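Final report, closing paragraph on structural work. Over the funding period we assembled a curated collection of sequence-structure pairs, and we close with a single example.
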Amino acid sequence: MMVVVAGGVGAMGQSVAATGKGEVLPGGAAGDYSEPKKTIASFLSAVQSTDEKAIREAIVVSPEQAPAVDAYLKLILATNKLQKAAEKKFGDQAEQFFGVNAKQMEARLKAVEDAPAKMVGGSAIIEIAADEATHQPGGTIVVKKVGDQWKLDAGSLFKLNETPKEQTEKSVSLAGKMAPLTDEMTSEIEAGKFASASEAFQAFWQRSLELVKESAGTMPAATQGK
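Its predicted structure, as stored:
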């Protein structure tokens, strides 16, 4: 179980962590963008290796959506580092509390491979079915042709095209605060501050809730409680 910024992460973004399949992209190695689904696999592998350069090479972002995408990517990378730190420190305990489950991610990539793709102009529309067994949401991913390569449309990846502007602004603000908090937790886990995955998660969860409450308290009164 992880804290997810409300409305900020789409069908693929919610499960963008490690997968046991696909090409891992160490040190900024080039991904395979020759086909839409290969682009998705390259994106997932880049996240697995926490390679921000490779992640950004796999997506296409409109200028107006760039700030939101930057905030969400930083949170995704921070969360991935936290999960890896927890797994290294606590072993199998980490799966229950920090969502480290390679089998779920393998299933997610297979769902992408099996998903039907519809070509509309210079875009591939990929409908991913929900998986109740692994609690993975379904959704639509758009992969666009950019020159001779296919790139993930960041707007569809993070559902920016369908989320109200006000909600996106709140989510971006919260993501910007969650990323450093997540990095702080990673450092504390690596330093051995917590005796168990449960203790570490409880501390992370409590700090996250306090941050959410603080963020809600900074909203105009008319927007609170909606």
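Residues 13-168 form one domain. The helical segments are 36-48, 52-57, 66-90, 93-98, 102-114, 154-157, 165-190, 197-217. We thank the funder for supporting this effort.
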